[in-house]
Design a protein that fits this description.
Order of helices and strands of chain B: EEEEEEEEEEE
Number of helices of chain B: 0
Structural class of chain B: mainly beta
Largest sheet of chain A: 7 strands, mixed
Oligomer: heterodimer
Largest interface: A-B, 31 and 27 residues
Mean pLDDT of chain A: 92
Largest sheet of chain B: 6 strands, mixed
Low-confidence stretches of chain A: none
Distance between the termini of chain A: 36 Å
Radius of gyration of chain B: 13 Å
Mean pLDDT of chain B: 92
Helix content of chain B: under 10%
Order of helices and strands of chain A: EEEEEEEEEEE
Shape of chain B: globular
Number of helices of chain A: 0
Chain lengths: 115, 111
């Protein structure tokens, strides 16, 4: 089992460019999440998908869009990148969606720099 | 906004000593979780404590939860150099299995 995989690992963009960050999990989890982590800070939730076919905004959704392509895959799109979006992006998944067992499993992250 | 705030922000100890880090949060929770992040890596789940539990153990980890004070502590006993990492608390308030993460404690364990 690969767990949660993310591509690419690193990316440099110019202001205004667009890109899609890919995430896939092979644990048959229902819920998937996208976070950003800025230096010296915890993770902030961008968007999440509680189940296949649903997506919802998190704490910092502006400038991003997401697609839950199927149960395995959840992508994050930056339509017009800005320097403020320079960050490390983490994808995560969790199993049942119930509070008793909702530990999250994280991917290795994508380090994005916007010039 | 961050739900959890960890204290201290940074902690440096010697191998073999115990490390204690604290987390305070703002609203009622269903459970609280602790995660570890090694430099440049994703987070790894360590332990989950439910709102009706007061203490939980897992190996060298001991977590306490005081819902009246809205606080939790993570104790790592007999620390090792490999414990060097950032530690985050995360709270589950029961909304669609979302977690809200604290700002983290950076732990440095020296030989």
């Amino acid at each position: 089992n690969a767990g949660v995989t993310q591509t690419p690992k690193f990316q440099v963009l110019k202001t205004g460019q667009s890109m899609t960050l890919q995430c896939a999990q092979d644990m048959n989890h229902n819920s998937m999440y996208w976070y950003r982590q800025d230096p010296g800070m915890g993770l902030r939730l961008i968007y999440y998908s509680a189940s296949e076919g649903t997506t919802d905004k998190g704490e910092v959704p502006n400038g991003y869009n997401v697609s839950r392509l199927n149960k395995r895959e959840f992508s994050l799109r930056l339509e017009s990148a800005a320097p403020s979006q320079t960050s490390v992006y983490f994808c995560a998944s969790s199993g049942s969606g119930t509070s008793a067992h909702n530990e999250q499993f994280f991917g290795p992250g994508t380090r994005l720099t916007v010039l | 906004s961050q739900q959890g705030e960890e204290d201290p922000q940074a902690l440096s100890i010697q191998e073999g000593e115990n490390a204690t880090m604290n987390c305070s949060y703002k609203t009622s929770i269903n459970n609280l979780q602790w995660y570890r992040q090694n430099s440049g890596r994703g987070l790894v789940h360590l332990i989950l404590i439910r709102s009706n539990e007061r203490e939980k153990h897992s190996g060298r980890l001991r977590v306490t939860l005081d819902t009246s004070k809205k606080s939790s502590s993570l104790l790592i006993t007999a620390s090792r150099a490999a414990d060097t990492a950032s530690y985050f608390c995360a709270t589950d308030t029961g909304t669609a299995s979302k977690l809200t993460f604290g700002t983290g404690t950076r732990l440095q364990v020296t030989l």
